[in-house]
Design brief:
The complex is a heterodimer of chains A (310) and B (105).
Chain A (H helix, E strand, L loop, with lengths): L5 H5 L7 H15 L9 H15 L2 H9 L13 H7 L13 H4 L22 E7 L1 H6 L1 E12 L5 E12 L8 E4 L15 E7 L6 E3 L2 E8 L1 H6 L1 E7 L2 E7 L8 E4 L14 E7 L7 H13 L10
Parallel strand pairs in A: 1-5, 7-11
Antiparallel strand pairs in A: 2-3, 4-5, 6-7, 8-9, 10-11
Helix pairs in contact in A: 2-3
Chain B lengths: L1 E6 L8 E3 H8 L3 H9 L14 E3 L1 H16 L3 H27 L3
Antiparallel strand pairs in B: 2-3
Helix pairs in contact in B: 1-2, 1-3, 3-4
The chains are: A alpha+beta (310), B mainly alpha (105).
Chain lengths: 310, 105
């Protein structure tokens, strides 16, 4: 396993007091808390500092950690034999264990508030997983495969990591910011406690064509000046396939043409809309003929779009 | 390695949670859940005082409340205020996203 320097993670000295550790943690938690932080690596940092704090705030776990001595962060590491004799709970050896597992079986672990039944039953751990999906996957629904390593405890309370694959069907209409729940797929409960849940934090990957707002989709629709002026039928790509859209004569640049029900589906039925935002585009270079026709139009038209500025 | 299939549930999947179930899912005590009801963070979907039932969406709110309370040792009104700010920020972010989606590239 790789050694983790919990003191360095929290930015405190090894001799820091409990209050100094708490203050350092709070300060970092304000910066990286997933509910408030916009830092790119917030979730990873928050998890890392949570792990460090969970060990250092508990006197027994901190003592066990300190007994491991000083090592470089990420250094390959194995606890000395006398360590497991003193701190127990590693009867199955250290194979397959993560650094944090060393402390999971110690007394502090059994103090999770509000998760105990009357007879010492303990609910299994919950997990949160970030699930980025494409707009197409949101439209049709999809299946994701989650490789989870859940913590389980044997009869003696010794922890062990159990790798599991959970295939979860994501219903159509799942979209940015939603949290879905896989009931009972988290860590196993202990002594009759309920199994934990897995929470899927859904996010939508950026799409090369559509921009998403709620269940509505927005698409830039380039049209020529003469299509905008005279009207035209154009083919529009939608998530369900191409459809023909009538661009009315006299369409202005920036106008939004709505295709009702062509957005993302809603779980309760119905769907958002697709908006085609008209962009009037000139040819990159005018041919002689095009230039001549434009000059003819300029001479024939008395239209002044800047009259209101006069 | 075991492999299992399961359906993801919507947070607002039809279904009601009793107070003990919600407390269990969120890692809170029943008294703490009731504090959140008093502060207006959680709104029961039905039932009467002492026998409230909650919508499934309450799990997400209660879990967030639990996390904030644990990390910063906030009292219920502090959690309620922070959650209100977070909701407000999310609404504003949503409005920004909507405006950006409507702007041609």
């Amino acid at each position: 396993m790789k050694f983790k320097d919990y003191y360095a993670i929290l930015g405190v000295e090894r001799g820091a007091t409990a209050d100094e550790i708490k203050n350092a943690y709070r300060k970092l938690a304000r910066k990286y808390h997933p509910d408030v932080s916009k830092e790119a690596n917030a979730e990873v940092r928050f998890k890392e500092m949570g792990e460090a704090y969970a060990t250092l705030k508990d006197p027994e776990k901190r003592a066990a950690y300190d007994q491991l001595g000083r090592h470089g962060p990420g250094e390959d590491f194995r606890p000395p034999p006398e360590w497991s004799t003193q701190f127990g709970d590693t009867s199955g050896g250290f194979d397959g264990m993560d650094f944090a597992d060393l402390f999971a079986g110690l007394a502090g672990h059994a103090r999770q508030r509000g998760r105990h039944g009357p007879e010492g039953a303990r609910r299994g751990q919950d997990y949160e997983v970030a699930i980025p999906i494409t707009v197409e996957e949101s439209f049709r629904g999809t299946e994701v495969s989650l490789d989870l390593t859940t913590m389980e405890f044997d009869e003696q309370g010794a922890p062990r990591r159990v790798p599991r694959t959970v295939k979860a069907r994501i219903p159509k209409g799942a979209t940015d910011g939603q949290v879905l729940r896989l009931t009972g797929q988290g860590g196993k409960g202990v002594h009759g406690g309920r199994d934990g849940d897995v929470y899927l934090n859904i996010s939508l990957r950026p799409h090369r064509r559509y921009r998403v707002s709620g269940r509505d989709l927005f698409l830039d629709l380039p049209v020529t000046p003469w299509e905008a002026a005279l009207g035209a039928g154009v083919e529009i790509p939608t998530l369900a396939g191409a459809v023909n859209l009538k661009v009315p004569a006299g369409t202005r640049g920036g106008q939004q043409l709505r295709l009702a029900g062509r957005g993302l589906p809603a779980p309760e039925g119905g769907a958002g809309d697709l908006y085609a935002i008209v962009q009037i585009v000139l040819p990159p270079e005018l041919t002689e003929r095009e230039r001549s026709l434009m000059q003819e139009l300029a001479a024939a038209s008395s239209f002044n779009p800047r009259r209101h500025l006069e | 390695m075991t492999s299992e299939h399961t359906d993801a549930l919507w947070p607002d999947e039809p279904g009601r949670l009793r107070l003990p179930d919600l407390a269990d899912c969120a890692g809170l005590s029943e008294a703490e859940v009731l504090d959140l009801v008093d502060c207006g963070v959680l709104t029961p979907a039905g039932g009467s005082e002492g026998q409230w039932v909650f919508g499934m969406r309450s799990i997400t709110v209660a879990r967030r409340a639990h996390r904030l309370r644990e990390e910063f040792e906030l009292e219920p009104h502090g959690v309620a205020l922070l959650l209100a700010f977070i909701d407000r920020i999310r609404d504003l972010e949503e409005a920004v996203r909507d405006l950006q989606a409507r702007l041609p590239r």
